[in-house]
Batch of 2 targets.
Target 1
Amino acid sequence: MIPHLTREDLIRRYPMVSTPTLYDVLAKLGHPGQAVDSAIRPLSPGPRLAGPALTVRGRELAQTGTKWGSAVSYDLFRAIQPGDVIVFDCAGHTASGPWGGNTGANAKVRGAAGIVLDGFTRDQSDLLQMGFPTFCRGVTPVLAHGRFQIEALNGPIRLSSQTGGSVAVNPGDFIVADVDGIVVVPQALLTEVLVYAEFAEQAEGEIRRAIEAGEDREAVDRRIDRWAPLKTRPQP
């Protein structure tokens, strides 16, 4: 039986599971398109990031020099709940960086766990110094004011997918990001995916220890099945 887990349980346990294992579980559950484009990388190789998505969508302004807009950007910071991962759909905009040192500092103070930005950021040194986990396509010195506008908050967005097309992200879906990449876990599957992934990671550790002890790999694979619970799960 799959247990009930609170938001706090999920935030505490998801960072302990790797993105490759989560991707494998999602694929076996019939959701093979949940890996975000691996061109979106961490600014530094250290951070592991996991938490519920707070989604942001923006767009490129048609004419450079248009007035930088609205209080929607301030509403972003007011909406942050401790543990949230900001997920930013830039709609293909790469000319400027709508994120930077001051936005990172504001998000960190509000309790955000980090950001996944399908676009560019500025102020890499500041973000690294403050220890705010930032996954993005790259870094630019170009200011976003007059070039880019936030237009929606906490609605459905799409990020570029590693397997082609795009990955849907809805508020409350879990974002898990590490040095291997970024995976989106739909909210309806959060507990189920976590339980199966934790079992698989434990079994993977047993497999590694057996191999390092000199046991034959084929024998190890016959003896330890990291997908056993998935094979016996009740079918919907």
Note: Helices lie at 7-13, 19-28, 72-79, 101-110, 124-130, 190-212, 217-223, 228-231.
Target 2
Amino acid sequence: MLTVAVLALDGVIPFDLSTPIEVFSRTRLPDGRPAYRVRVCGLGGPVDSGAFPLTPPWGLDALADADTIIIPGCADPAAPVPPRVLGALRSAAADGTRIASICAGAFVLAATGLLDGQRATTHWLVTKRLAEAYPEVDVDPDVLYVDNGQFLTSAGAAAGLDLCLHLIRRDHGSAVAADAARLSVMPLEREGGQAQFIVHDQPPTPRGSELEPVLKWMQDNADRTLSLDDIAEQAGMSCRTLNRRFREQTGTTPLQWLLRARIRQAQHLLETTDHSVERIAGQAGFGSSTAFRERFKKIVGTSPYAYRAAFQTTEAR
């Protein structure tokens, strides 16, 4: 069982604090065992969260035993970070502990110097302030989160949930992360192409709707070259009506839905087989490996090779 330490300091944002506690505490392995133990750590004594006071059960010494440290957002990004906290974080980092921040928690992580020379993000309202306060940090305001390996940062509170799901997927694979996402009523990928590694296990399917049969047909035939006319003929609708019904019931177009189904199929093959990228491009219906690489990187945020390196199962290797 892995240990997640959540750091609680004065001014901590309650939602940013509760998100990792809730997500990691409820995550279960396939055999039903808890995947994580969660410890809320602080300087000792009560912490003012604005909404309510809380007293962390563990002190800073517990950070040394954690596999992952989460730094939640704080109400005042400019508030000085206690030297004891900076020292504890630097010491944990030196031992190889993974450290992730949510929202303005990036300011605490940046204050340690651990983000110098690395790409990072935070809430869009304060990305400029982060870049000005820590010019050695490469601040990217356009992503939900950034994974540098040992150090990770995320944007606003909802992006903190994206980050937690990403960490679960890194630790335990897609199936466990998908279960955690369902418990959180959260998709594994949000619109915008910024979710990097996190994706739906399957594209959204409105159960019991008139589109369900054609969606299943599209999934079963995703390896074929399908046009909008082909899909409309299968659905028994005009292209215009099909597009309208798709947007109403899935929030996207037929061809975008099909693209997501193909991407998910490609991810599954990259995770579970040693097939070449060229072969997977054909199996997933992309035709050429060039088109596959371009679309995969645009949607997933990384190349097929990098995705495989990060998420291929031990059995596949």
Note: The beta strands are 2-7, 36-41, 47-48, 53-54, 68-71, 98-101, 119-120, 138-139, 145-147, 151-154.
